[in-house]
Amino acid sequence: MTHRSDFAYREHYKPGNSLTALAFILPSCLGFIVFFAVPLFRGIVISFTDWDLLCTAKFIGLENYKKLFLDSEFWNSLWVTFQYVLWNIPIQTVIAMVIALVMRGIKSSSLLRGAMIVPWLLPNVVVALLALAVLDPAIGIVNEGLKALGLHPLGFLTTTQLAMPSIAGINTWKFMGYTALIIFAGLQAIPREVEEAALIDGATGWTAFRKITLPLLRPVLAFVIVTSVIGSFQVYDTVAIATRGGPVNSTWVMNFFIFKNAFEGYQMGYATAASILLFFLLVGVGFLQIRMMRAGESD
What we know:
Elements lengths: L3 H9 L2 H32 L2 E2 L7 E2 L3 H7 L2 H34 L4 H7 L1 H4 L2 H11 L6 H8 L14 H26 L3 H9 L4 H29 L3 H6 L11 H11 L3 H25 L7
Antiparallel strand pairs: 1-2
């Protein structure tokens, strides 16, 4: 006797269905192979060579990697990048969460949600140039405001103490609206009845948020944090325009180190080796975050 479940299984997994599914994913697979897999493989090959972009590449084995581990500039750029991530991610995530909760509470319109992502739509170069004008020590509007309050102007992008927090603040402003929209979408998927039941049972708003909303929001937060950390490790545009790695290498991030060695130092093999190490570092960090945040599980 044939069960209905067996019949449904055969109908769902007919060869024609599999071919249709393959046809849909083929463009994405081709794009992944052409624009990601092949460049990654070629980058790994180049990282084992001495190549100045002009002459023929010469195979030198692991020399580039040995040189990197002994290069103080490489370790400084890695540490500076970690500092940027530590400044950017917590502040951006907290502000985005607050904005998302406000948007949920006031039943915000589509116009307001659209306005939130306007900074994200601006090119990074435009944002950096805008920040240069706003934070200028002499005529910037921020320092003019400090002067009006009787305070001394600050070198936000020209002092070692403030340069990195300022870069992080600029990019937090740019991306917090986009992050807030993602969190807002996650909040919309949480049944309001669950939170209302907790409030009826005597839980405070903070307790309901901590015990119910946050656990139910964990998959969305995991996605936001993982993608934000990966993006933060790749920061370049804002640094290149606003500080050019200074002052005194205080904003000399990994991508700036790679660019300088590749296109100004003409050490493409050496720069590519740094890129490969950054790639595997991001793979490790992303995997660790997913495991620690249990992103594959839902409450």
